[in-house]
Amino acid sequence: xxxxxxxxxxxxxxxxxxxxxxxxxxxxxxxxxxxxxxxxxxxxxxxxxxxxxxxxxxxxxxxxxxxxxxxxxxxxxxxxxxxxxxxxxxxxxxxxxxxxxxxxxxxxxxxxxxxxxxxxxxxxxxxxxxxxxxxxxxxxxxxxxxxxxxxxxxxxxxxxxxxxxxxxxxxxxxxxxxxxxxxxxxxxxxxxxxxxxxxxxxxxxxxxxxxxxxxxxxxxxxxxxxxxxxxxxxxxxxxxxxxxxxxxxxxxxxxxxxxxxxxxxxxxxxxxxxxxxxxxxxxxxxxxxxxxxxxxxxxxxxxxxxxxxxxxxxxxxxxxxxxxxxxxxxxxxxxxx
Length: 337
Hints:
Strand order of the largest sheet: 1-2
Shape: globular
Oligomer: single chain
Number of domains: 1
């Protein structure tokens, strides 16, 4: 029992870490796609595309790891979540595929370049929105009966899931804008800095709205946030988010830093993830299925965990090396310095 408990928590942490890494890495390149419509000149769009070209495909490795980890380590949760969220998940996957095709095809045509640019924008927006909708639908609760999904086809669609969808679009736009502040110079950087302000304000506004309504979705959420001893753990999170937002805006407007706004935006996302963890733990499907209810037998967890311990450092090393090779500013004429 002790081994099972430890491994189950370890797998839950591993799954959350994979999802978080995916969100912040693929988030900024989806954000670049969301911002594409604000840059109208071909040269500007080429710079935006080249800023993420070396890393965007590898960023999606973490989505595969998160989905595979859910299926392998928590099969019951996978079996319940997938039918409940088929529509937004399929929309996300189709959008990511179409976005990838547009990414490659726009370089190989002149006549249809504008259409592929529009496809790149649409794929980025739809993928981000669908991910936010799926998160909101999971957070508001999934109807479970026995060991199966018992809800309807449209249960995922609600005012709350739409708000979380828009929130993630804004958040990814913030990541994309701060990425461009870090990676570009001149007019593009100044436009990106201005966009970072707008998307930053929208992101903080959505955080406030979502945070205000989340405790009232489930009674257990309210207990975590407003009753002892949970409030001792929960209270510092909104204070830290407020402080991080102030630092980010000061870094953008007053000090005009280049790297710091992106790092602070990542930390803002990390604090939001911490808030989600406080609300949901130990449930993987609030408030129906805990991580222990959904976990595969511990002998299977041991077998898979050995593979994960070997594989994940390799992925991290490859990812870190790729970002190190393509560090620094991007030259509009020659690519990376």
